[in-house]
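From the shared-data thread, chain only:
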Amino acid sequence: MAGREAIGGFILAGGQSSRMGQPKGLLAFAGKPLVVHLARLIEFAVEPPVIIGPPGVYGGLGFHVVPDDRRNLGPLGGISTALRISSCGWNLIVGCDLPFLAREWIEYLVARAIASPADAVIPVNERGFEPLCAMYRKRAQPAIAEALERGVRKITDGLAEVTLATIAPLEWKAFDPRGRLFKNINTPSDYDEAHKGLSEETKP
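Structure, as tokens:
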């Protein structure tokens, strides 16, 4: 994707992982910590990926790690932190617990955003938005920060003052024949299921 504007890349890993019982970003997946798996996946499309999370947990992985500006504000706080520190107009922001993201999908998402006048480009599914695998303009940060100051914590509510463009299921499912693109890991059973899915993909 050479020859286009610089894109910021951020992986949100600041959650408490209470249901998992350990930091989700450090879970082994495809032979490496999950957060490293994601960083390697997106690095072709973005500036060196930055982890938004506790440096004491993720600081030894070889990536720049920045803590949340304020703790316990959820993913919306992580998005705000990422956009505040970014030096890029457009930014790819993903959660640390999405093991089945695909390179082709990331390439498509970035291209859609670059061509869009919106402040955020977000895929949607039958349940609603998928804001933790989406593109955000840096200029959206003040509106998100203001929402946080008002006590807003739900991401979709925090984006109420941001101009959105969406990517419909018919589009992103072309990159997701198994229906797992946005399948995240929250519990040990989710983790076991993800490993089972990986094993199925690597069978001859």
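Strands lie at 7-12, 28-29, 32-33, 50-52, 64-66, 90-95, 120-125, 128-129, 133-137, 164-167.
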